[in-house]
Amino acid sequence: MSVLALEGVVKAFGDQVVLDALDLEVAEHEVVVLIGASGSGKSTLLRCVNLLEPVDDGRIRLDGEDVTDPRTDADAVRARIGVVFQQFNLFPHRSVLDNVTLAARHVHRTPKAEAETRGRRLLERVGLADRAGEYPDRLSGGQQQRVAIARAIMTEPRLLLLDEITSALDPQLVGEVLDLVAELKDAGSTILMTTHEMHFAEHAADRVVFLQGGRIVEQGPPEQVLRDPQHESTRAFLSRLRPR
C-alpha cells in the first residue's frame, strides 16, 4: 500500500483550475520530486495533502485512509505529516530546542524530558547541538531551515512534505540543507517535495514528476526525465533552466 495516494484530485481558485484530475502515488521510503514552472500546481498539491486547502473533487489517501472525507480530523492527519515550507516559520520568541519539541509536547503529549532528549539528538544530527538555547534570529538562514527540518521529523511522520526549502536561502547555504535531505532519504524517510534544484533532484529523487497546468505531463526515474525527457513540454521547461 502506498503511503500517499491522490485519486482524481481537482482544485480550483475561482475559474482557475490548479490541479486537474491529478493522480499520484508515493510508496513507503520513496522520494518523489515535483518540478514545473511557477503556477503549475506544485505547492497547491502539497497544501492539499496537508489539508491546508480543501479539494474540489477526488480523494487523498494517507496509508489507505481517505483524509478528504469531511468527517476527517484534520489535526490528527497533520500530526502524521511533517512539513517544511520555503519560509522557516520558526517561533522567534522560543529557543531552538523549544521550536523543535513544541509539537511533540503539545500535540503528541510527549513528556518534556523525553521530548528534549530526542530534540537534542536531532539538533546534533543536523549539526546544531550547540545552538539549542539560541533564538532563531541568531541563526543563519541555512541553520534556521535545518531547525525547521529537525522540527518536522521530531514526531517521526509517515510523510515529509518539503516545499522549495532552499528558495529563500543564499546560494552558499543551499548545499548544507540539501545534504540533510539526502541523509533523510538514506535513513528511509518517505518524502514528497518541490524543488528548482535539478542537480539535487537528479541525485536524491527516486522519481521525478513534471507538472504543467495542474496535470502530470511526465514522470519517471530522474536520469530519464531530466536527461532524456520524452515530452516536448518537459524538454522546453528544462532547457529554460540550463545555462546558456
UniProtKB/TrEMBL annotation:
<keyword id="KW-1003">Cell membrane</keyword>
<protein>
    <submittedName>
        <fullName>Amino acid ABC transporter ATP-binding protein</fullName>
    </submittedName>
</protein>
<comment type="similarity">
    <text>Belongs to the ABC transporter superfamily.</text>
</comment>
<keyword id="KW-0547">Nucleotide-binding</keyword>
<feature type="domain" description="ABC transporter">
    <location>
        <begin position="4"/>
        <end position="238"/>
    </location>
</feature>
<keyword id="KW-0813">Transport</keyword>
<dbReference type="InterPro" id="IPR003593">
    <property type="entry name" value="AAA+_ATPase"/>
</dbReference>
<dbReference type="InterPro" id="IPR017871">
    <property type="entry name" value="ABC_transporter-like_CS"/>
</dbReference>
<dbReference type="InterPro" id="IPR003439">
    <property type="entry name" value="ABC_transporter-like_ATP-bd"/>
</dbReference>
<dbReference type="GO" id="GO:0005524">
    <property type="term" value="F:ATP binding"/>
</dbReference>
<dbReference type="InterPro" id="IPR027417">
    <property type="entry name" value="P-loop_NTPase"/>
</dbReference>
<keyword id="KW-0067">ATP-binding</keyword>
<keyword id="KW-0472">Membrane</keyword>
<dbReference type="InterPro" id="IPR050086">
    <property type="entry name" value="MetN_ABC_transporter-like"/>
</dbReference>
<dbReference type="InterPro" id="IPR030679">
    <property type="entry name" value="ABC_ATPase_HisP-typ"/>
</dbReference>
<keyword id="KW-0029">Amino-acid transport</keyword>
<dbReference type="Pfam" id="PF00005">
    <property type="entry name" value="ABC_tran"/>
</dbReference>
